[in-house]
Design brief:
This protein is α/β, with parallel strands linked by helices. The chain contains 17 helices and 27 strands. An eight-stranded mixed sheet has the order 5-18-13-6-7-8-19-27, sandwiched between helices. The protein starts with a helix and ends in an 8-residue tail after the last strand. The longest helix is centred in the middle third of the chain and has 20 residues. The protein folds into three domains: about 120 residues, no CATH class; about 300 residues, LCP protein (Aminopeptidase), CATH 3.40.630.190; about 110 residues, 2-Layer Sandwich (Alpha-Beta Plaits).
């Protein structure tokens, strides 16, 4: 059903055809604006609800209402009341002015004598519009319409890229979700060629790894600097003729070249993120310059705050000190400028982008947006037009389902953080960065182990107390630790790689590779005897083992008996912590999506 093509016969915006039905409390799409009633059922209702309502009304009234027959823009109205082709329908009132609304309603349906007039009941379908608030702006608006009538239009807007197995996870799963949001600098679209780099294929210019917790109570949005020097792995890409091509990897390459360079697709960027962090993105969403302009216009502008007046001749950005609203070209200029904030680096620009996205999320969750059908339609239309996604979420229904899942997170529990980095030591005058050697992996481990960065206090308190109790007490020297390592996960060679790491990097020379475990396990475990507790605490600290991994026996070990470490599916690689600390490493800056901050 194409509501857009039918609804614009007289230049009427489809969003203007949503009408409140006082009988149900639903907003309904009135396809024929010239009549006082619609023969089409409420397009926000499911088929099951429509059928149930139809059956109930048939029993009460014994007659059917006039309906619409046929398909497409040329449908004509049938005139008979009792026609079998016309299902019973409630009246959907036509659009009318406030002045005449009360009189029209009274004339159409006078209250029965002696019977209390009931208020229209708040519909569950009206409430369904409210699940669109929260999470990342690009994700939220992807599910904003929530109306089947618009499905075909929204579905036709979406572009997809087949990235193979890296984007094959189910839309809804029981575990945590990781979505890679890529902002490309490709200069396509009206007015964008003037930004320079006209022939660019588009690189990974702005990158956010968005982690949603398993219990949906919190989320972490980690920005990845485009100038990060890293290794890009080989990646298999799908060609237009259906064949596959392996793009060779690169060492000491900028992160932003993981997309576009040498024909790399978003799947290559996803693999690069996994290579750096040990976190496998489940899906990707990619947007370009037009997305910023269209989405900010659709929401009616995004409120921003400047600590000082801005006048940047390079990006043509002019903003006053204090609060103002930006949209379209001005919003794009704000997100692109590097000369207006901090030390003019990409890292300072990332902070401004995070503040902007936080403000946009708050605007999405405002009641002015969530209860405005016209605004919701414009947002959904703009978002799906702007998005390129993997085939795993490549239709409007899947995007709406995804939005439902992640919008369960309260805005106050969405934390923005930038990947910890330092200046590249290989450059005399550093212009690139590398992952911070002390802060990087603990933060990645927190995300891998689904540890919240936000003040979800009960969960944080429990994690701290368990981890503190685990590590409390004396720890053995590395040379005194005896451990047998088994591989019970899916990662081949895990036991061998771990033993090599323990011996060469940690000094645990009395470690042995015992090959594969009898069966696969989900979580890593460490079995030890009471008189090996000091060894267990030392090994747990080295590997970041959670309290749940520790399995103490009841009898002491004898002689040269070793502890048993069985690596599970949660093991991501030798040297990578199984679980992170209970709080972010010292020095890692955090920002809440729920708090407005003035850009400096």
């Amino acid at each position: 059903m194409d509501a857009h093509s039918r609804g614009r016969a007289d230049d009427i915006d489809p969003a203007d055809q949503w009408v409140l039905n006082p009988h149900t409390g639903n907003y309904e799409l009135r396809l024929d604006h010239s009549a006082g009633e619609s023969g089409s059922p409420s397009l926000t209702a499911t088929a099951e609800e429509t059928g149930r309502r139809t059956a109930e009304e048939t029993g009460r009234r014994g007659e059917s209402r006039t309906g619409l027959s046929g398909e497409g823009p040329g449908r004509r109205r049938t005139g008979s009341r009792g026609s079998a082709a016309d299902a019973p329908r409630r009246e959907v009132p036509g659009q009318r002015s406030r002045r005449s609304a009360q009189g029209t309603r009274a004339a159409a349906e006078p209250p029965a004598s002696g019977r209390r007039k009931r208020k229209p009941r708040k519909s569950r379908k009206k409430k369904a519009l409210l699940w669109t608030g929260g999470v990342m702006a690009f994700v939220v608006v992807a599910g904003s319409a929530g109306a089947y009538a618009l499905y075909q239009r929204l579905n036709g807007n979406i572009d997809t890229v087949d990235v193979g197995d890296v984007g094959s996870k189910s839309v809804v799963s029981d575990g945590p979700m990781n979505i890679l949001i890529i902002g490309t600098d490709k200069r396509t679209g009206k007015g964008n060629e003037g930004y320079g780099d006209k022939g660019s294929t588009g690189h990974a210019d702005t990158n956010i790894l968005f982690h949603v917790s398993e219990d949906r109570t919190n989320a972490t949005a980690m920005s990845i600097p485009r100038d990060l020097m890293t290794s890009i792995p080989d990646c298999e890409t799908k060609q237009p003729d259906g064949s596959t091509k392996v793009i060779p990897g690169a060492v000491k390459a900028r992160f932003n070249t993981s997309l576009g360079q040498e024909g790399r697709d978003p799947g290559c960027t996803m693999r690069t993120v996994e290579e750096i962090t040990g976190i496998k993105p489940d899906h990707f969403m990619m947007v370009d310059f037009n997305a910023v302009k269209e989405l900010t216009a659709a929401v009616g502008g995004v409120k921003v705050c400047m600590a000082k007046p801005i006048d940047d001749p390079k990006s043509h950005l002019k903003l006053p000190q204090g609060e103002s609203k930006v949209q379209g070209e001005k919003a794009l200029a704000l997100l692109r400028t590097r000369d207006s904030f901090g030390n003019r680096s990409d890292l300072d620009r990332i902070k401004v982008q995070q503040q902007f996205l936080g403000s946009m999320i708050r605007e999405m969750k405002s009641s002015d947006t969530l209860t405005n059908p016209k605004k919701l339609f414009k947002l959904a239309d703009a978002a799906t037009n702007a998005l390129t996604v993997d085939t795993g979420i490549g239709d409007a229904k899947k995007l709406m389902t995804l939005a439902q899942e992640i919008s369960k997170v309260n805005t106050e529990n969405i934390t923005f953080v930038t990947m910890p980095v330092i200046d590249n030591p290989d450059e005399p005058k550093p212009v690139t960065v590398v992952v911070h050697p002390q802060q990087g992996d603990p933060l990645f481990a927190m995300m891998r182990s689904d540890t919240s960065l936000t003040e979800v206090k009960q969960k944080e308190k429990a994690a701290k107390s368990k981890q503190a109790a685990l590590l409390k007490g004396p720890k053995a020297e590395a040379a005194d630790i005896r451990v047998d390592v088994l591989n019970g996960g899916a990662l081949g060679g895990a036991a061998s790689a771990t033993v090599t790491w323990l011996q060469n990097e940690q000094g645990v020379l009395k470690s042995a590779n015992k090959a594969n475990a009898p069966e696969k396990i989900k979580k890593t475990t460490l079995e030890y005897a009471p008189n090996q507790a000091d060894q267990a605490r030392a090994l747990a600290a080295m590997m970041g083992l959670p309290a749940t991994a520790m399995k103490q026996g009841t009898t002491d070990a004898e002689g040269l008996e070793a502890m048993v470490l069985t690596l599970g599916a949660d093991f991501k690689g030798a040297g990578q912590l199984i679980t992170g600390p209970a709080k972010a490493p010292e020095g890692v800056e955090q920002a809440s999506a729920d708090k407005a901050v003035c850009a400096k």
